[in-house]
Amino acid sequence: MKKPSQIKIVIGDTIVNLRQFYQKIGNYCIEEKINCPNFFAGVSLPEDLPYVNFVTEDEKYNAIVLNTNIKRADLFEYAVKAMSSEAYVIDNNGGMFEAFYNDFTDMAEIYRNASTICEWLRIPCPQIIVSKNAPLNGCAYNTESGDKTVWIHIKQKESIKKMYCTLAHELRHAWQHKYYNEKYFKDYKMFDKDSSHDEKVAYYLQPAEIDAYAFSFCFMKTIDPNYPLFTPFDEPVDQICSRAKEIWNELATLGIVK
Q1: Are 151 and 127 in contact (CB under 8 A)?
Q2: Which residues pair with 115 in a beta bridge?
Q3: Is the dihedral of CA 28, 65, 138, 189 positive or negative?
Q4: Exposure check for the chain: N or C terminus, fewer CB within 10 A?
Q5: What are phi and psi of 189, to 5 degrees?
Q6: Where are the domains of the chain?
Q7: pLDDT, tens digit, for every residue of 58-79?
Q8: Taking all residues of the chain, what is their mean pLDDT, rounded to a whole number?
Q9: Rounded to two decimals, what is the model's pTM?
């Protein structure tokens, strides 16, 4: 058996639907009044090693890796066992998890909200990663075909509600990829640090971004009725407000919101 320090953690193309697992592990941690660690499922480990539990010396970051050979129905059982197993200490920067490091300490509500959003959208729940080192506020990693989202990477923020908002936004993109990939992403354009102001505005006013901002606003209204419409601009945008009303009515028709 390889020592855990020799195991290379790679978040790749393994698609794992974690909706039920995230709901169960989030509920469990809240009921037991314990912090919920960061879980990485679908990772290739030695066959006889079902999980590995890692924690930083200062105990701010706890990551549990679950072997890809664990059946989805058994993930929760192995996760609970892993949480009480001996932890392998890594350095305070996160060691092999440096790219995914956060000092958020408790993922329970993030996981539960991810599960709820995916249930609303009727999509598989990808890996959810919260990190101080996320390249943007949030991003999604998709399969080469573009229609399946493997993981969501969101930036750790001071406000937990802003993290929920970004989570909803990125999972809406996963919904777009699954059901309307051609519609939303055929002519989708990114921007970079050298883009002009007008190019950045044009990016945020693409149909995929308008829809994702509108959906995240609708979700946040169920968390906090007074949560403001979040946009990349200093004031509400007519297109986003209009789309938010449409989405709210669609959710109401499905009995999701009132």
Answers
A1: yes
A2: none
A3: negative
A4: C
A5: -125, 135
A6: 10-175, 187-258
A7: 989 999 999 988 999 999 999 9
A8: 88
A9: 0.90
